[in-house]
Specification:
Elements lengths: L27 E3 L2 E3 L9 H4 L7 H15 L5 H11 L14 H7 L10 H5 L2 H17 L20
Antiparallel strand pairs: 1-2
Length: 161
């Protein structure tokens, strides 16, 4: 069993603000899986229960982060309270009308098999439309180089970019 313990620090010995989300980022590598990574608030149910897990834990955490990007919070307490409620799938009523609701809800499914794969998320219509709108805005603003940007295909696909 390989065990590694580390503390993520900035050059001044403190955590950089951008990494404060991960607090003390102490981790153990045991049998190819990690334990106690990041903050408990972002851990999937299977990680909290110390059960075996797979890549779907990242989809769960990403669902929480996506929600944070979509919903502004007035205070840190409001953020923690709302994210805690999300863990039991209690969404703010104003968010349930947004097109992203179904995606975030599926990403936070308690059963890993019920969470979408990353490739399925990238293929969702509203994300495709958002990407196209972003590309058009870049072209109009003169920031684009005239080329259409295409997202990379999933590593398991046989197509090229």
């Amino acid at each position: 069993m390989l065990q590694v313990r580390g503390l993520l620090k900035g050059t001044n010995g403190l955590l950089p603000k951008t990494l404060s989300l991960f607090n003390y980022f102490v981790f153990n590598i045991i049998d190819g899986l990690t334990e106690q990574v990041g903050t408990e608030l972002y851990m999937s149910p299977e990680q909290l229960a110390k059960k075996p897990y797979n890549h779907k834990v990242d989809i769960y955490s990403l669902g929480l982060i996506l929600f944070e990007l979509l919903v502004p919070f007035s205070t840190q307490m409001e953020r923690v309270d709302t994210l805690t409620k999300l863990r039991i799938l209690q969404f703010p009523s104003h968010f349930m009308n947004k097109p992203e609701y179904e995606l975030v809800r599926s990403m936070l499914a308690h059963k890993p098999d019920d969470r979408p794969e990353a490739s399925n998320i990238l293929d969702m219509d509203f994300l495709r439309v958002a990407l196209e709108e972003h590309e058009q805005a870049l072209e109009k603003s003169g920031c684009g180089d005239g080329k259409r940007y295409r997202r990379r295909k999933h590593l398991s696909s046989s197509g090229s970019t």
